[in-house]
Amino acid sequence: QVTMVESGGGLVQVGGSLRLSCTGTGSTGFDTVAWFRQAPGKQRELVGFITVGDRTVYGDVVKGRFTISRDVTRNTVYLQLHNLNLEDTGVYYCAQPPYTTWGQGAQVTVSS
Fold it and tell me: What does the pLDDT read at residue 72?
């Protein structure tokens, strides 16, 4: 079973950028990987995912601002966040189907 570890979170001002990394202990090179986030007091929501064929799909709230990419040689999937706003604050998780195993997540805090 692959264990996913998120990193790269931090504090950023409104309009800023961050890049999160998701590294798998096993091979994630050819598997679907999704990013989710959970804001304080809210349910976890899908940010987007990258498929086996490297097709990417994004949720409406992040479309055009976030980008998911993959580096097969590093067993890593990235989430590039641009033009951040206060509503993007939360813990960001990566996971593979069936999305039943979760890591610690990466905290993203956007300040005004």
Answer: 87
